[in-house]
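Good morning C.,

I know you're traveling, so I'll keep this short. The sequence:
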Amino acid sequence: MQKLLRIWDIASTKDKSGQLPVSPSTVWRWVREGRFPKPFKLSNSVTVWDASMVEEFISKQAAPSSANEVKS
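The C-alpha cells, ready to paste straight into the viewer:
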C-alpha cells in the first residue's frame, strides 16, 4: 500500500516538527525549483506526496557528496 504525506507531515512549523527542518514555504519553493518531488492532488483541496519519493529525497541529501547538498 502506498503511503502518502501532507505538507504538515513534511515541513516543520513553530508548533510541530515535520520530517524536514524547513518551513512549508521552503518545501513549495523547492518543488517550483525542481529540487523536491512534485505532489499530486487527491481532490481540489487535498495535495499529497508519495512517502517513498520524500524518503528518497532525504536519503540523497544525506549522501556524503556535497553536490547533493540542499540549501534553504
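Safe travels,
E.
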